[in-house]
Amino acid sequence: MVLLDEGRTAWPWGWLSRSPTGDSGAAKGKGKEVAWGKALDFSEDSDCAADVWDIMEKGMARELVTDFTQPLPQSERLWRFRVERSNDRMKYRLFCESGEFLMFAQVSSANRRVEFFLYDPEDTDSGASLFDPGKPTFTMSGNVQCGEWCLTQERCDSCRLSPRHLQCNCQTRKEVAWVRHWHQDIGCGINHCMDIGLSVQPDIEDSESAPWEFWEHTLQTRAPVWNDDVSSLVLDFKDRYILSSAKNFMLTLEESPDNVVCQYGKIGPNSFGLDFAYPLSVFQAFGISLTTLLWT
């Protein structure tokens, strides 16, 4: 497994105006083009329109969610990201390896719901005025007793930007992944495991015949091995110095168990390395990593 060279750009598409190859106007994925040039309609949010345009002029607007729901380009590399956790373990931020902020997440007091936002409420230089705690872009709800989590997209670009007769039938909410936790005895230890189903984002014209609830990919955790020298379960994280943590995990495709598509490991007191690749999207990978918040 080869990780992305830190000298290359850390974010595969750029922000809305650049393709993976650096061309402007469209981003390409799986042989199809996704146009970014559509005008935004803020008729329902007129109070924030001026703030949006001001942030857009600075190149920091994130009113479209496609960058966060589209799978990363197919590659043999894992894209490198970093998750920073607050001291109270209730707030999480996702960054590119280069340090660029991507997403903010806030955990409810009951640990049963996580809300995700595209703006950082504490960063006054990059659109904190657009942060609305009552309108998360994504949510994740969990049944802690059953160890099940559901990742949901709360805002649909297709519905917001298309004429009414061309809107999809999602009712603005789309289930994009499910996660089920379970445990396995290995050696003298207990390993946290998870099974994951990823849904597919259809084209607008295919939205009626190919709903998001179609599960195309299934992921599973790679089992660690017991190491007598350290008296602990061990995973082989490539090109990462990882600290011991119950939250560390690796994910593989069910049909290709030797191919790691995601690895999450502790790299500091409140820092975690999150490396992933196709077929995961940014939100799916970030959300899956936060389902481990109760793992001890």
In short:
By secondary structure, this protein is mainly beta. Helices cover 9% and strands 37% of the residues. The strands form three sheets. A twelve-stranded antiparallel barrel has the order 4-5-6-7-8-9-10-11-12-15-16-17.
Walk me through the structure:
There is one protein chain. The chain has 296 residues and is mainly beta. It has one domain: Tubby Protein, Chain A. The chain has a twelve-stranded antiparallel beta barrel with strand order 4-5-6-7-8-9-10-11-12-15-16-17. 29% of the residues are buried.
CATH class: Alpha Beta
* SSE ordering: EEEHHEEEEEEHEEEEEEEEH
> What's the total count of β strands?
17
How large is the radius of gyration?
Answer: 19 Å
Largest sheet: 12 strands, antiparallel, barrel
Straight-line N-to-C gap: 28 Å
Oligomer description: single chain
- What's the pLDDT, averaged over the residues? 76
CATH topology: Tubby Protein, Chain A
* Percent of residues in beta strands: 35-45%
Count of discrete domains: 1
Summed up, the helix count is: 4
Q: Helical residue percent?
A: under 10%
Question: For the record, what is the CATH homologous superfamily label?
Answer: Tubby Protein, Chain A
Q: What is the CATH architecture descriptor?
A: Alpha-Beta Barrel
Strand line-up in the sheet with most strands: 4-5-6-7-8-9-10-11-12-15-16-17
Global geometry: globular
